[in-house]
Write a structure and sequence with these properties.
The structure holds 2 protein chains of 2 kinds. By secondary structure, chain A is of the alpha/beta class. Chain A folds into 2 domains: 247 residues, 3-Layer(aba) Sandwich (Rossmann fold), CATH 3.40.50; 73 residues, no CATH class. Chain A has 15 helices and 12 strands. In chain A, the strands form 3 sheets. Chain A has a 6-stranded parallel beta sheet with strand order 3-2-1-4-5-6, with helices on both faces. The two termini of chain A are 24 Å apart. Chain B is an alpha/beta fold. Chain B has 2 domains: 276 residues, Crotonobetainyl-coa:carnitine coa-transferase, domain 1 (Rossmann fold, 3-Layer(aba) Sandwich); 86 residues, formyl-coa transferase, domain 3. Chain B contains 18 helices and 14 strands. Classes of the chains: A alpha/beta, B alpha/beta.
């Protein structure tokens, strides 16, 4: 098999759950040699699930299995001198350390960015934490939930008057992971010229603030609030529709930025008489003044059509509305199948399973998926015998 | 490398990106030191130049021609395109491909997010471009990838994440799908995934001299973020609906009401030790000491009651009062911020959330800096987005070495337009 793009790059992963493991997963898929360091009780994702057949087991957590494919795994007890010495041996030969330890622990282990820079000047040290390594809240505790709250994502999700909702399923951690991987490669590129490693400081709260922030300017520039409005964007983003509406057997995401798709949709539903009412002809006015009324007027048609019927109508007429799919529908998607997106791997305990595959197709350096997630401590002997 | 050097100094990027994903890949590469040349055309403007406040101005023009000065005013355009040079080439003009191939010969990276086939139809696909630049790195990031039955798919960020199985998770448990429509999660996520792929290919090229082509499907990169529901389907045949603020291994985990108008605090308890710290921090609240709440399984089994009880405590405090008490005890908590609170926050300010590049005509523009902080070779937002065609002379004269006469001829023919 051809080498990956990052062949020869050695990465030490010292972090649990999603952010650091997703970073390591991306780097491993791109061909880096990623060694995952776990504490004796294992990465917390091993205890998170969902579990195969709903039976909690450290080798059967779907989250762990999917985020740790392609890596080797060692167990080190960093509370003991022997464990710390082994970690230091690993760092001697590594290009990158990717970690998300609490600051107090990093200090105790002698692994603050200042320390790693002094002891291993060529090492790229990437931290992916909720609030970052610098700034007034650097010692705050936080998880993806706090990143969603601080990053002004939660404030935009949910219904007015009810609790805001966080970005689902730890999404800020995934974004921290990809930004950490970007930082790792940027620092490696810089090192090729300078010979010096450096610290890369990624905060999932920053990433969440950036990700929504660049788009929030569309709202603020129009004097529209950045707040939650249930199943639609605030003031419909300025133009109706910018919404998700239920249909007979599911939901449809309906967004039309220009006028043509909306016109085509109105024709497709038979141009009912209300669509000729001046009140419902100006999409900006509909979005800002009466989106609930228009939702109600559309409901009879939507409720008598299935997602499949609506998708067909939209495809034929070039209307960019889409079906809100669940995981079952995603798993059966003909587009994903035609591009062989999902991969099957056999894990010695969890058995054969399908997993999400490569985010990209590289023409010269393929994504590498040849190794399932490591069993707890699977490669400890192998890594430290040499 | 001297102080102020950036990681991608010396890399030149031709940015055919438009709307969101392509442009934000380009803005990241620019921030990290690459010279990024955005290719636009006044014959077919980047959609983001036409966002408010421009359209109202546009409607006043009898022939609906955009007023050039107003096209530079759009805040979102600056957020997506800052730090780039801007040239105008009409891709539909038969003279455009030859001119652009000359630019490709002097570039390291080409990025684009058109529908598949757009560049191929004018001879600017990877196989043709590597003839003029053998070690070229090129990325295409269309909605669904370059091949397959849905390759012509057109999406906005929320319709893409709807297809990817993400929006279906967003809403209150047992209720309708709400989605995260304003936030537009998929676009910046796909831009960051695209940028990572470009960097990996540049790293490979640096070591081996070999360029390559990257076919990125935004759909695939986004499906890869739905690991938990996807694995539950593959392993157990279970389909996830609306998740509320639920978390499989943390409880409590949610946004709790606080004193004040629409004020909330996020609280997450990651294990039983954190629960013990929370209970101590709450003070005199007997319910919290009941044994059924001591372990995660019990807290998950009585979640509704737990949330209601905890809300009684948070309701008597502001978001920051609750946050300070809980953080002092080592419990993850933070107020639910709006944009104003975020902009005024000393932590975000200290970390450089915003940059203020100077626009030659408008003055300082506020944009969000890319959230990747390198200690020794930091990036920097050095300029706003270009004015339409601002760097035509610089690029065609100084980079390509065209004479003033040639440039004038290309303008007259409508190639530079």
């Amino acid at each position: 098999m051809l080498d990956g793009a990052l062949h020869g790059l050695r990465v030490i992963e010292l972090g649990e759950f999603v952010a650091v493991p997703y970073c390591g997963r991306l780097l491993a898929g791109l061909g880096a040699d990623v060694i995952k360091v776990e504490p004796p009780q294992g990465d917390r994702a091993r205890r998170h699930g969902p579990f195969l057949h709903d039976q909690p087991h450290p080798e059967r957590s779907g989250l762990f299995l999917a985020l740790n494919m392609g890596k080797r795994g060692v167990v080190l007890d960093l509370e003991r001198a022997e464990g710390r010495a082994r970690l230091e041996r690993l760092l001697e030969g590594a290009d990158c350390l990717v970690e998300s330890q609490e600051p107090e622990r990093l200090e105790r282990l002698g692994l603050t960015p200042g320390e790693t820079r002094r002891r291993w000047p060529g090492l790229v040290h990437v931290s992916i934490t909720t609030f970052g390594r610098r700034g007034p809240y650097a010692r705050f505790r936080g998880h993806a939930l706090q990143a969603s709250a601080a990053g002004a994502a939660s404030v935009t999700i949910g219904e007015p008057g009810r609790p805001p909702l966080a970005l689902p399923a730890s999404q800020p951690d995934y974004q921290g992971g990809v930004c950490g991987a970007i930082g790792a490669l940027l620092a490696c590129v810089a090192r090729a010229r300078t010979g010096a490693g450096q610290h890369v400081d990624v905060s999932t709260a920053d990433v969440t603030a950036f990700s929504g922030g660049i788009t929030s300017t569309m709202y603020t520039a129009q004097g529209m609030p950045w707040v939650r409005e249930g199943h639609r964007a605030s003031r419909s983003g300025g133009y109706y529709p910018y919404t998700i509406l239920p249909c007979q057997d599911g939901s449809i995401c309906m967004i039309s930025r220009s006028g043509h798709p909306w016109k085509a949709f109105v024709e497709a539903i038979g141009s009912p008489s209300w669509t000729r009412d001046p009140r419902y002809r100006d999409r900006a006015r509909m979005g800002r003044e009466c989106p609930d009324e228009v939702d109600a007027l559309l409901a009879p048609w939507l409720e008598t059509h299935t997602t499949e019927e609506i998708a067909t109508i939209c495809r034929e007429r070039g209307i960019p509305f889409s079906v809100v799919r669940d995981s079952q529908e995603v798993a059966r998607c003909p587009q994903l199948a035609s591009r062989d997106f999902f991969v099957e791997l056999r894990h010695p305990v969890a058995g054969p399973l399908r997993y999400p595959g490569a985010p990209w197709k590289f023409s010269a350096t393929p994504w590498r998926v040849e190794r399932p997630a490591p069993r707890l401590g699977e490669h400890t002997a192998e890594v430290f015998s040499s | 490398m001297t102080g102020g050097a950036r990681p991608l100094d010396g890399i030149r990027v031709l940015d055919f990106g438009w709307v969101a994903v392509g442009p934000v890949i380009g803005s990241l590469l620019a921030e990290m030191g690459a010279e990024v040349i955005k290719i636009e055309s006044s014959r077919r403007l980047d959609y983001c130049r036409l966002l408010p406040p421009t359209p109202s101005v546009r409607r006043e023009q009898p022939d609906r021609t955009p007023v050039a000065a107003d096209l530079d005013m759009v805040s979102m355009f600056h957020n997506y395109n800052r730090g780039k040079l801007g040239i105008t080439v009409d891709l539909r003009h038969p003279g455009a491909p030859a001119l652009l191939r000359r630019l490709v010969a002097r570039s390291d990276v080409v990025l684009e997010n058109f529908s598949p086939g757009v560049l191929r139809r004018i001879g600017l696909h990877y196989e043709a471009l590597r003839e003029v630049r053998p070690d070229l790195v090129m990325i295409s990031c269309s909605a669904a990838g370059q091949d397959g039955p849905w390759s012509e798919l057109k999406t906005f960020a929320p319709s893409l994440s709807s297809l990817a199985g993400l929006e279906v998770l967003i809403g209150y448990p047992g209720e309708r799908v709400l989605g995260a429509l304003a936030y537009g999660y998929a676009d910046p996520s796909n831009a960051h995934h695209g940028a990572l792929a470009v960097l990996a290919a540049l790293w490979h090229r640096q070591r081996t001299g070999q360029g390559q082509y990257i076919d990125m499907s935004q759909l695939e990169a986004t499906v890869g973020l739905t690991v938990e529901p996807l694995m539950d389907w593959f392993m157990n045949g279970r389909v996830w609906g609306r998740q509320g603020n639920d978390h499989l291994s943390m409880a409590p985990h949610g946004h709790y009401p606080c004193r004040g108008d629409d004020a909330w605090v996020s609280i997450a308890v990651e294990d039983d030790g954190a629960w013990t710290r929370l209970v101590a921090a709450l003070g005199d609240v007997p319910w919290a000491r009941e044994p059924r709440f001591a372990a995660l399984a019990g807290r998950r089994a009585h979640l509704a009651e737990l949330d209601a009880r905890l809300a009684e405590w948070t309701r008597e405090r502001t978001g920051w009062e609750a946050t300070e008490i809980l953080q002092r005890a080592g419990v993850a908590a933070f107020p639910v911020y709006g944009l104003d609170e975020q902009a005024a926050d000393p932590h975000f300010q200290a970390r450089g959330l915003m940059a203020r590049p100077e626009h030659p005509r408008i003055g300082p523009m506020q944009v969000y800096a890319h959230p990747i902080k390198l200690g020794a070779t930091p990036g920097g937002v050095t300029a706003t987005a270009p004015m339409l065609g601002e760097h035509n002379d610089h690029v065609f004269r100084e980079l390509l070495g065209l004479s003033a006469v040639e440039i004038e001829r290309l303008r007259a023919e409508g190639v530079i337009a």
